Amino acid sequence: MSTTPIKIVGASALAAALAVAVSRPRTVGRLVRCLVARAAGASAYAPLPPPQKVKVAVCQLNVTADKAQNLQTAKKAIQDAAAQGAKLVVLPEMWNCPYSNDSFPTYAEDIEGANSISVDMLSAAAAETGVTLIAGSIPERCGGRLYNTCCVFSSRGELLAKHRKVHLFDIDIPGKITFKESLTLSPGPGPTVVDTEAGRLGIGICYDIRFPELAQLYAARGCQVLVYPGAFNMTTGPVHWELLARARAVDNQIFVITCSPARNPSSSYQAWGHSTVVGPFAEILATTDHDPTIIYADMDYSQLAERRANMPLVQQKRYDLYALLDKTL
Ligand SMILES: *[C@@H]1O[C@H](CO)[C@@H](O)[C@H](O)[C@H]1NC(C)=O
Ligand SMILES: *[C@@H]1O[C@H](CO)[C@@H](O)[C@H](O)[C@H]1NC(C)=O
Ligand SMILES: *[C@@H]1O[C@H](CO)[C@@H](O)[C@H](O)[C@H]1NC(C)=O
Question: Per the CB 3.0–4.6 Å rule, which of 8, 78, 116, 207 could disulfide with 109?
């Protein structure tokens, strides 16, 4: 096992379980079930029950080609958000790296290794400010592959979970645009549900928001909030970004947070911005335009029960006609 202070809680539990299996073979059956649960994103972290209200800060950062500057910008935003009383802080997709396939290999870090400067900064910032941190995403290098990965930190700076973007963005419109993430990145293994002091969160990255099945699965597993760091472009942003966030919210009667980088005129990729927090009635709780900023919202989790009682969609599903099948449990 690694001796670095930062460990994935699930991974260290897994290593401990393996050690048990070697010395006590009869526990192997239980171990296999445990491994399956871990692989499905179950968390070994047992937090206090979340408070009824959580103040969230969504940081729409100006991402540049200068990695050191991006780290400084993110750190300052986390500190500013905490100073405003936020308990949950969200960063955008690819906040340490320009959003271009050529940049991903250059800016990538080995998150589980000892030399990830982004993880070190994030862990220290979360611990120092006492916030739960959904750290957008960065390019991750692991076993010769690259992933688009979101790290989640506890208020003590522990790396609680890691979501690797499940649905890769591949488009090829002849004569117009080709962008194939899959040429550079590998897809993640599955959904990520993480229990934090700010509630039970389901994580998706950008294109993941277009797949309602993933959101339904998170809702079925008791998530209170869906968090999507993302960087929509200037074509799809205006028509789909807010619509998708509100659609996932209204379908599942759940809070939805989207967090985009700010639009940087000197960048080759022009992000739509418009980071947004949506409530379980699909109401916009906070939003913005494309400039660098931090937006805040108070999420009152008692509204989940209220909305679901007033309109009991879950009880009224016709599971004799269709089914939601979670293949990862
Ligand atoms: C964002 O970063 C670029 C450098 O990439 C800089 O030119 C620009 O002024 C920054 N925007 C703001 C609003 O700070
Ligand atoms: C980036 O994408 C372009 C166009 O799809 C491709 O030609 C290039 O090889 C890609 N670069 C990397 C590093 O994957
Ligand atoms: C944005 O992406 C869409 C596909 O999702 C593509 O059709 C469009 O051309 C892109 N727009 C820009 C400005 O790159």
Answer: 116
As a whole number of angstroms, the distance between CA 52 and CA 28 comes to 39
Domains in the chain, ordered, with CATH? 1-39 (no CATH), 49-310 (3.60.110.10)
Mutate to test the pocket of ligand 3, among 99, 101, 170, 177 (most ligand atoms within 8 A of CB): 177
**pLDDT tens across 101-115, in order?**
899 999 999 999 888
Full-model pTM: 0.86
- Active-site residue (options: 67, 87, 162, 165): 165
Pocket probe for ligand 3: among 176, 232, 236, 244, the residue whose CB has the most ligand atoms within 8 Å is 236
Question: Mind listing the pLDDT tens digit for each residue in 133-187?
Answer: 999 999 999 999 999 999 999 999 999 999 999 999 898 889 888 888 899 999 9
